[in-house]
Amino acid sequence: FLYLTGMRYGEAASITWRDINKRAKPWTVSITGTIVKVPGKKATKQSSPKTQSSVRTITLPDKAIEIVKDQHREVKDGFLFRNPQSMYLPEPTINMWLRLAKEKFNIDKPVSCHIFRHTHISKLAELDIPMYVVQERVGHSSEKTTREIYLHVTKKAKQKLDQKLNSL
Predict the structure, then answer these.
(1) What's this model's pTM, rounded to 2 decimal places?
(2) Rounded distance, CA 28 to CA 20, Å?
(3) Residues recognised as catalytic
(4) Which residue has the higher pLDDT, 40 or 16?
(5) Looking at 55-147, which runs of residues are DSSP E strands?
(6) Sheet harboring 56-59: ordered strands across?
């Protein structure tokens, strides 16, 4: 879901069924907060995400809609993404599972929940999506943030450059 949407973990973790606009074609999700977990208390939704520009509505690709529907079958109210005991899934727990998978499958790259956001942005760049559209989708206030922090040149983008150079 993070890979398909480019959302921050806390944004995705705070989504409820009510945040999904099922009448839109395609469906959209309103990102209006982030998850907050204070030790000894239940997780709650903070009334704003990381920054003001992070408040946004984004479209959901078909695969993300399938995930949302599957989660809704399991969870009728509250946060969509939680464990079978109706508990919020802490980001460090998911990052630990990702590290275990990294070892099991001999992955030699860093893995964390946040890598899916980076990958989403890189894939949008490979698809030649304009920077201002990517910036809006991921909730950055400036194009510079998107470009400098996240936009990694990918192998596919380099291959595309090589092909275009050969056509000169």
Answers:
(1) 0.85
(2) 6
(3) 8, 114, 117, 140, 150
(4) 16
(5) 56-59
(6) 20-21, 28-31, 56-59
